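Q: Two folds, back to back.
A: First:
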Amino acid sequence: MKRKYFFFDIDGTLTDRRTGSMVPSAGEALDKLREAGHFVCVNTGRAHYKARKFFDRYGFDNMVANGGMAIVIDKELVENSPLPFEQALRVYNEAIESGFGVLVSDEDSERVACTDFRFYDQAGIRKEPTYYVIDENYRPQEAEHIYKLYISIPVGRQDEALSLMPSLEGLGYIWFEPEYMLIQQDHKRRGIYRMLELIGAEPGSEVIVFGDDTNDLDMFAPEFYKVAMGNGHPDLKAAADEVAPANVEDGIYRVCEEHGWFETVEG
């Protein structure tokens, strides 16, 4: 058995979305892959600080986070690139001028900053632990970095919002919640290539990726072996080399066992 390089999405792939916890059989599969000598890595769109809680809880060593822009090797953060600064500022200004509220994540933490309560008035509180800094004198152009933007879009204005913020082109965005848009990096494939470069491995068929949602399409490169979870989005399944059973039906474990990936690596 040649050494494989496994990259796993978190939400809906490794975890049961109902509980947010690792599917037990998935955790067992990861342990067996490590014991066999394979490289095991998380690949998530979550910010590094946020993904770190899951990473530490379940004893990972390697991680791609921040939508492909943060790299952790042997538990150490090697790099964590923010959004393109000038482009993020243009999006911020377009959103403000269009009457939308904006929260700025300008550091790798739960802290977000804004100038007023517009985001709260339009969207309510952010749907995850957050430390808010509300300062009428806050100027994002004076920040060193911008990692993410949260833009409140009133219901019914989602389509209009895209036309009002032309600088969004080329930036990743997603609607995790109907009340607001999250602007974040969307380069999971780039994160895999960068990780392989840093550890001295070659991209190719020995790379195996597991995902469940459309944001995982980016890591479904032609040269990788691509596994979509049975509970996943139809578009991802259509792009996969294999569709596993649902994650809560032991999908990860069953696929790894069927392929013989629990066998010890040669040499």
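A: Second:
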Amino acid sequence: MKEEYRVLAFDFGASSGRAMLAIYKDGKIFMEEVHRFSNDSVVVNQTMYWDTLRLFYEIKQGMIKAKLKGGFDSIGIDTWGVDFGLLDKDGYLLENQIHYRDSRTEGMIEECEEYISKDKFYQITGLQFMEINTIYQLLSLAKKRPEMLERADTLLMTPDLFNYFLSGRKCTEYSIASTTQLLDARTHQWSDEIIDSLPIPRKILKEIVPTGTVIGQLRDEICEELGVPKANVVAVAGHDTQCALAAAPAEEEDFVFLSCGTWSLLGTELKEPIINEKSKKYNITNEGGYGFKTSFLKNIIGLWLIQESRRQWKREGKEYSFSELEALASEAEPLQSLIDPDAKEFVPQGNIPKRIQEYCQRTNQKVPQTIGQIVRCINESLALKYRYSLKQIEECTNISYSTLYMLGGGMQSKLLCQMTANACQKKVSAGPVEATVLGNIALQLIAAGQIKDIKEARECIKRSEEVHIYVPSEKEAEKKQWEAAYQKMLELIAD
């Protein structure tokens, strides 16, 4: 075991990415951001793309900067789920990846029922029905652009595509495979029953490897181009949610977490999936994680609402930092208007503030006018949606959780953390803020034999990072106000 082990972790979000260089020494993780870059979608001919090759350029820049800081022994990449790239038989990318927010999947859930019933679909995959899922993107291709699937030899999910560019190996990491709705939740392999039921070629799906697998080393030509030495390429939890979960500093075996970023993912970690009528009714997903464990969780629109509102205000010539937006929200009167964050009108990019105002007017509520009122509406609505989803999780697991472990960028908002504690009537343990990156780092260290297992990793992260505690308000008036707001949220969801 090395006295000092160095890893490079790339964490891609829906709006930005960063490269973090970490040193593991004396049982602690010390990390430094060496590169940060924007992740901007590009719309061409009414199709929304990821700028895939530009993102790989940024990976190379991160590697160069890490080299100048002393180098690295391994590299790992995590990203969002569901999106993929298609390669031809010679390994060339057929086109830039299409963004999950592109409109091509509209109506595909209903189309899919012509091939396989939703009941059978859920019984096999245990996955939440969302139009953005990989399966519906593929069905859209089969229906509208079949020539693309005919030309394709390989499908690689986003982190696997970057791993292939780095190492030359074509394989699919388990956690990211579980976001496709093509995986059997019990066998942890591609479901032949689903694939055979749909017009999707089986050959494009490659070997599934366990989370935390060393899949190879950097290609010779990359080492020569960048002047970096050979390093292991590790298939960490390619899905960023599972990286964040790996870093949850929970001591109890049964715990509930909230990974809060562009998306909010609220759930718990289980040894086996829960797939029954109740979980199907609540549309709860069973995603795969490290050690073939199951993340039983709900996908909820998260900070996307704040991020996209901020972009709209910027387009209008009003530029605010996130801390400035939080300050404005703090000054606004509490619980005046609410939205269902997962209502369909809030999914596409565009003028979110205007849509929020139209939603509130349509539902006979006070219409938020100021920027602070809109931000407060978003945060309070998210906190109440967390309570709604948490109750469903508790009902399915028959466990009442005392603490909600809040991870990721959302915990930087003290206002949102306190609102979540108040709305859920739970203690909120907020931290680490860099949970996704720390999970990525920890899984690389486990793969290298530097850390024994996930339990030791979580203990190490707890030693290395600060955690903040928020408790629900004890004021009876505030409790009643939040309870009344929750009843209003139930009405909005029912609509």
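Q: And?
A: The radius of gyration is 22 Å.
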